[in-house]
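Write out structure tokens for Pirin family protein.
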Amino acid sequence: MVRGAERYETVGDGITTRHSFSYGAHYDADNVAFGPLRAVNEELLDPGAGYEGHRHSDVEIVTWVLEGVLAHEDSTGTRGLVRPGEVQHVSARAGLEHAERNASDREPLRFVQMMVAPSDEELADPDPPPPAYRQWDLQGARGYLLDVLRLRDGVTLHAALLDSGDVVALPEDGLVHLQVTRGSVEVAGTRLEAGDVVRVSGRGPVTVTAITSSEILAWHFAAPVPAPTQERP
């Protein structure tokens, strides 16, 4: 478990970033990845603040906005705005430069940006997909764990809006990376607050119980299906 207050922190010009994994100047050999997940950065940008063009490669970038509006521009010529309730997926497998900023000069922006390593097959693909935006009405499905983005077979991002007392079950197989983005929940008898992270290795059923009105993000990395054994005739 990683408590929100224990995350690495980077403070820049109008930007505060809290990292759940080793990132940039923060390095911990025991905290560099969880399955294919390489980064989970919670970003807080002052009005008008942002990142100038910078490059990523060999990674899938997934962004979830919590409050405010994120303006995105990249080297493919794509421009767009990402709002709460939207998930943005940008493939930087072959290398991509992008810039991000707070689209408002009055309101702060808070978002979570996550980075997932592509599979070997995806890295070999000469035509990675263009940036994609998907809108989700979580308000219309409160109390359920929804599949909001499937990067590939066995790699899925789930999200849920929960009212106090709601209970959802996490996937049982493989690995689950759970982050509380709003409110308070309980997992395995432990209270988690906004910003807290718990990493679960598939060892039977695990449930999330909302203590207050809450929002959670959960990456599920399914266990590989073993190849069938062949018996001798």
